[in-house]
Amino acid sequence: QVQLVQSGAEVRKPGASVKVSCKASGYTFTGSYIHWVRQAPGQRLEWVGWINPNSGGTNYAQNFQGRVTMTKDTSISTAYMELSSLTSDDTAVYYCARARTVFGVVTLFDYWGQGTLVTVSS
Amino acid sequence: DIQMTQSPSSLSASVGDGVTITCRASQSISSYLNWYQQKPGKAPKVLIYGTTSLQSGVPSRFSGSGSGTDFTLTISSLQPEDFATYYCQQSYSYPWTFGQGTNVEIK
Question: Residue A104: is it exposed, middle or buried by C-beta count within 10 angstroms (0-12/13-18/19+)?
Fold first, then answer.
């Protein structure tokens, strides 16, 4: 069965960086894009960006440009999201999600990781 | 960015009630609209994709409709496991955006 398993909770000080991992199993890792979505406490879901595990190509939301880097290691079917220059506004649960495209155009997130809480506090 | 606005933000209903949640996009998104259900402390789960298609394994009491800027999620007969927060999401253009959520509570 498809599973996405994320790394554990992290605590960082303002200005630091954090790297979250997302290990995929149960499907061909290079066959589906991995997206990252975050959710600050009590807030709506916010799309961060995606990585193509096959080519390594990425697409980031403008709000995170210059601060986020998504990478992958196909040998261990794992995607990573690194966020730098952290502030308290980055305190959130970060999710990875597998994207599936149907009818050639409609894309949905059909499997999600369990989420990783990143807390930024001095 | 395309803004997604849901209404209501919360509602109270009883088991067996029919419920309708509305999602409005700030510009046309054709039919590129998905609905997710989220329970406290859990990741979202897709219910409906492409406005009307039911995700495999999702009960048929869930249905979606709409096009352009106005969309609807309907639960025909609320079950105890349906009490959760529901989000709409557009995949028409980047950045993909979500509605603010509708919290469905037990009356």
Answer: exposed
